Amino acid sequence: MIIDFHTHNFPDSIAQRAIETMVEKLRHEFVPFGDGTLACQLAAAKADGIDRCVMCPIATKPSQADVILRTALEIRDGEKGEEAARVIIPLASVHPFDPDFKLRLKAIADAGIPGIKLHPYYQGFRLDDPAVVPFFSAVRDLGLVVIAHCGYDNGFPDDPMTCGPAEIAALLAAVPGLGPRFVAAHLGGRVGNPPGATDILLDTGCFIDTACLEMLQDDADAIRVMETWPVERIVFGTDYPWNRQGRLVEWVKAHRPLAAEREAIFHLNAERLLGI
Questions:
Q1: Alpha carbons 243 and 231: distance in angstroms, whole number
Q2: Can you tell me the mean pLDDT for 44-59?
Q3: 126-157 as b/e: b if 16+ CB within 10 A
Q4: Which of 29, 33, 192, 266 minimizes the number of CB atoms within 10 Å of its CB?
Q5: What is the rounded distance in angstroms from the CA atom of residue 99 to the CA atom of residue 95?
Q6: Average pLDDT over residues 246-264
Q7: What is the DSSP letter of 214?
Q8: Distance between CA atoms of 45 and 9, rounded to whole angstroms?
Q9: CATH of the domain spanning 3-274, picked from 3.30.1310.20, 3.40.50.720, 3.20.20.140, 3.40.50.300
Q10: Quick one: pLDDT band at residue 207, thresholds 50, 70, 90?
Q11: Which H, E and C letters describe 161-200, residue by residue?
């Protein structure tokens, strides 16, 4: 069993435009593996032996939260097809500066959606900003999981670091109890930060995911984190369609050779986090 905790797809009507916009923003440094549609994702997961995919949408403005929740429920409840309902575990998203964030987060929890995805660069906030503490406190109190983009983003090369390990640690110190429900994507946000920076997170209880862009998979610090991070706090993630899922499977296997460790990373930790 393999659960990919970090994937993306877009509605058919906007997928092409969304992918083209992101490729342009990334200055053509990365090319997606697929067209960004749900159907393409399902085919890719099947081809690479991925059993389930956590879908991670992002509300770049408050008005998108309701549409994102509605789409999540359509997928979960079979309106997008039996295969999608079986494979996709949809998350929701809420903008941290949404004045109605408490109502929107409660609606997500009441609907049985297990968590939300956030992206500080695309949503325009810092993880260490005291202004977002009430938002994350509400996430914690509702028992929601949160997975956040962490570390440098190639689409924002001139922006200051808003979500590296130091910023994650500050947030988790300000919101006690959030750590065990917080997934710091991209190996804990190590990219764009000094080697060893993720060590500050070891005592926070947070999870990291393995979404490590292909150009960085041979990076010494990335390998160090992959090989030494507490295995019970790693979830497999790829950031599909920006990475080949099968290639990340092999990368994880190369650096976590024990069968029990692989089981934890590939599905047991995700199942525990998501309550499935």
A1: 22
A2: 98
A3: bbbbeebeebbbbbbebebbbbbbbbbbebee
A4: 29
A5: 9
A6: 97
A7: G
A8: 12
A9: 3.20.20.140
A10: very high
A11: CCCCHHHHHHHHHHCCCCHHHEEEHHHHHCCCCCCCHHHH
Whether pTM > 0.85 for this model: the answer is yes
Alpha carbon dihedral 146, 151, 152, 156, in 10-degree steps, equals: 30
Q: List strands edge to edge, sheet with 182-184.
A: 115-118, 145-148, 182-184, 207-209, 234-235
| Average pLDDT score over the chain | 95
Helix (H) or strand (E) holding 6, with range, is: strand 3-7
Question: Is the distance from CB of 271 to CB of 243 less than 8 angstroms?
Answer: no
pLDDT, one tens digit per residue, over 82-117 is 999 999 999 999 999 999 999 999 999 999 999 999
Residue with tokens 């697929």: 34
The pLDDT score that the predictor gives to residue 215 is: 65
Long-range contacts of 215-222 (CB under 8 A, 24+ apart): 216/191, 217/251, 220/195, 221/190, 221/195, 221/196, 222/187, 222/190
CA–CA distance, 58 with 11 (Å, rounded to integer) = 13
CA distance 255 to 55: 25
Which tokens belong to 216?
Answer: 């960085």
**What CA–CA distance (Å, rounded) separates 267 from 276?**
10
CA 29, CA 6: separation in Å to the nearest integer? 20
- Res 118: pLDDT: 98
- Euclidean distance between CA atoms 78 and 169, whole angstroms: 38
Helices (H) and strands (E) in the chain, counts: 13, 8
Q: What is the DSSP string of 199-211?
A: GGGTTT--EEE--
